Amino acid sequence: MDTDEQMDTPVKPSTQQDRVRLGLIVAAALAVLTVVEYVIAVSIDDPLIWLLPFVIAKFALILEYFMHFSSLWGKGDH
Length: 78
Description:
Elements: H1 3-8, H2 16-43, H3 48-66
Helix pairs in contact: 2-3
């Protein structure tokens, strides 16, 4: 496997402790994104365009790490 393939493949946690740590990191990232969304929403008139990147990022994190979306096509181990 060359370096490009290694960079494209997400690292799957191997132990329960690694999975818990990853879940906490993702939950913290979602919390930070939510705070940023709130600040933008209350600071800007008509903030839709400014909020879209954060909404999409949260959508992707939830789909992948909590709903295991990639495993629907056999790519995941869950």
